Amino acid sequence: MRYQITGKQIDVGESLQTHVETELGAMLEKYPGRPTDANVIFSKSGHEYVCEAVIHLSTGLNCTAKAKGTEIYATFADCAEKMDKQLRRYKRRLKDHHKERTTPVELFGAASYILAGTGEGDSDVAEPESLQPIIVAEMETKIPSLSVGEAVMQMELAGAPVLVFRNEKKDGVNVVYRRDDGNIGWIDP
């Protein structure tokens, strides 16, 4: 497994890198899915350290966790605990998923845009001259080809509020999202 342990504007020493590799290795050996990559990024936000971890499983699914704290080692421990909880919750489904899928998840390229907000909370915002939204950023993204169950699991593992995916059964683009009532919504156009 490849580890990439970096710091954003902070120095990540050899001791912390060794600690992260040891702890992640011990945690991940309990779970199926054969992780291939682990990206751990440490940064500082004010007086707190932030640890973001993404584990790429060989099946194509990703597991993401994020934690904040005043001590860098404790912050990593919190992040690893969140990831462990997610993987433990989905252990049986990951195991079943691995038996059904013989090939990794297929990914398709797509354009992704970030649009400027309208400032709806401000009552004195002037009416825009054009109803066309302002594009703040444009980038490439990957759309996985999954079943609906796998898409829900991927969304939960990534901690995302929404996931766009290509439905393997119907060969069309679908969306799963977390509803305000806590349930999962599925859009199948």
Automatic annotation (TrEMBL):
Keywords per UniProt: Cytoplasm, Ribonucleoprotein, Ribosomal protein, Translation regulation
Gene Ontology CC: one annotated term: cytosolic small ribosomal subunit
UniProt xrefs under InterPro entries: HPF/YfiA_ribosome-assoc, HPF_long/plastid, RHF-like, RHF/RaiA, Ribosom_S30AE_C, Ribosom_S30AE_C_sf
Compartments (UniProt record): Cytoplasm
KW Lipid metabolism (keyword) present: no
Origin: domain of life: Bacteria
Record-level Gene Ontology MF annotations: ribosomal small subunit binding
Residue intervals of the Sigma 54 modulation/S30EA ribosomal protein C-terminal domain: 132-185
GO biological process, one term: negative regulation of translational elongation
Principal localisation: cytoplasm
Quaternary structure annotation from Swiss-Prot or TrEMBL: Associates exclusively with 100S ribosomes, which are dimers of 70S ribosomes.
Family per record: Belongs to the HPF/YfiA ribosome-associated protein family. Long HPF subfamily.
Role, per record: Required for dimerization of active 70S ribosomes into 100S ribosomes in stationary phase; 100S ribosomes are translationally inactive and sometimes present during exponential growth.
Name of the protein: Ribosome hibernation promoting factor
Annotated organism of origin: Roseivivax marinus
Gene behind this protein: hpf
